[in-house]
Amino acid sequence: MHKVVASAEEAIQDVFDGATVMVGGFGLCGMPENLIRALARKGVKNLITISNNVGIDDVGMGLLLANGQIRRHIGTYVGENKLLEKMVLSGTLQLDLVPQGTFAERIRAGGAGIPAFYTPTGVGTIVAEGKEAREFDGRTYIMERALKADFAFVKAWKGDKWGNLVYRKTAQNFNPMMAAAAKITIAEVEHLVEAGELEPDMVHTPSVYVKRIIQGELFERRIERRTVRKAVASN
After folding, report:
1. pTM for this one?
2. 16 contacts: CB under 8 Å, gap ≥ 6
3. Could you read off the pLDDT of 169-201 as tens digits, one per residue?
4. Which long-range contacts (CB under 8 A, 24 or more apart) does 83-86 make?
5. I need a surface site. Which of 45, 50, 215, 230 has the fewest CB within 10 A?
6. Which residues, at least 6 apart from 131, have a Cβ–Cβ distance to it below 8 Å?
């Protein structure tokens, strides 16, 4: 039951070339930045990554892009990463863009053991190309396949040594569903506590889904796009 490992490097030591890796986070919020940095240092190649976005240049998953470690990415948003745009346009990286709600449900389905489902999202657009379509109650739906992975990297606010996790605010985005959709889930936490210290009713991810857990060493908490209110001229 004791799942704590000493470092991010140890936690990700069995990630292999060509692995499919889910990475939690929404923008730069709730991303497992210590695990990502360790993966960048490890240097494995030809990864298929599944994440809402790909960080920004040289931050988060942007590090993996800069290293040329990602072969294919499945996600929903790419607007803050110039390197990703350049790689997609040059054909050096394959990008699968998925509507965000569909993306979330595909991951949830993967964790629930549901191989596919039907949704009306994307009907009549390029999203539907090559996909099975069926009519239910007079409305057309397209079939979407579940998403699963070899590894899931998730970030939580608190976790205990058994692997129970509690997320905080916006970090409770894709992390919980990804934790259930991978063969090996690795968690980094801001606060690592003893088993029994977490209130059971507050646990978001039960320990049964988590294989390894680390105490994060450095959380930079970068801001994706800093904006300030324009000054109002006084009379």
Report:
1. 0.89
2. 44, 150
3. 888 889 999 999 999 999 999 999 999 899 999
4. 83/57, 84/54
5. 230
6. 142, 143, 144
When pLDDT is averaged across residues 204-219 and rounded to a whole number, the result is 90
Instruction: State the total domains in the chain.
Output: 1
In a domain, 1, yes or no: no
CATH number at residue 101: 3.40.1080.10
